[in-house]
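Internal tracking record. Fields below are filled automatically when a chain is submitted to the structure queue. Please do not edit lines marked as system-generated. If the sequence contains nonstandard residues, flag them in the REMARKS field before resubmitting.
Queue: standard
Priority: normal
Entity type: single polypeptide chain
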Amino acid sequence: MASIASSAFIASLPKAELHLHLEGSIDPPTLLELRKRHGKRGTISEVEQLYRYKDFAGFLMAFKTITEDLQTPEDYELITYRLMQKLKAENVLHAEVYVSVGVCLWRKQDFDAIFVGLERGRERGEHDFGVSLLWIFDAVRQLGPEKAHPVAELAVRYKGQSVVGFGIGGDERQAAPELFRDIYTYAAANGLRLTAHAGETAGPGSVWGALNLPAERIGHGFTASQDPELVEALSTRQIPVEICITSNLRTGVCPTIAEHPVRNYFDQGLMVTLNTDDPAMFATSLGREYQLAQETFGFTDEHLRELARNSFEASFLPAEKKLGFLNLFDAAAARS
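SYSTEM-GENERATED OUTPUT FOLLOWS
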């Protein structure tokens, strides 16, 4: 896809991002830095090969390979701080970031130590860039519910320490949402907010399953467009849908950009938010996603304001903090 630079209006628009994977934000220079830190040899061109893949399965393999170079708390501190620096450049005031806790546990890493590194990076980033960040602990669904439960338990343990939610990601086709019902019940009973990847590689039945967990937000929701009754339900219930246009194109779940349902969703009254998913792996930014929506789908500046406001409305922030961000947003929008 051709490079798209965001306009001055989009750059000045205060934004939140709700579907963003920490590990997918690691750019090639940072990955090379991590590898050298751990005594590996390599060149930037070799590293960049990892960011080229043909389909969703290839993307998952690339993601897994990149995470192999995250070995110490200091590594997680570095990538968190670098992410927040990039968010600041996009005028993102608040982000809710997935951490692949399921991968850490699968690798038998000391997650308590890793969390210390994550929090050091978050606190430094908040101090230096003024960006608000909350964590969502992500379980790998294809590993099964027995591996997902410890992820939810860790999210409960760290709730109140900037951990706000629990979700499932990975390959929907290998593990339906229904398998995780008991875990979502446990997470909700312990005060966690709930999200789920659904309707990315599996059909609309996966989105219905996520809603029945019940997920409060839907990650991707690309295939929901195949079921008019589901689209109506999402609109009526105002379930936020975390749209990731470039991601859907790069992983091949959406064959061409003209086939993406984002504009139809918006016109049908869904609560749409724009997100990058894995920005470094998809060579995108939040500003670029807004520009893509405007240039390809005809979103006006006023439409983009609505999408940006949705991103704060749909956040898992406490009510008082959410209101504060909405007031900031409204004041900025009034000036633009």
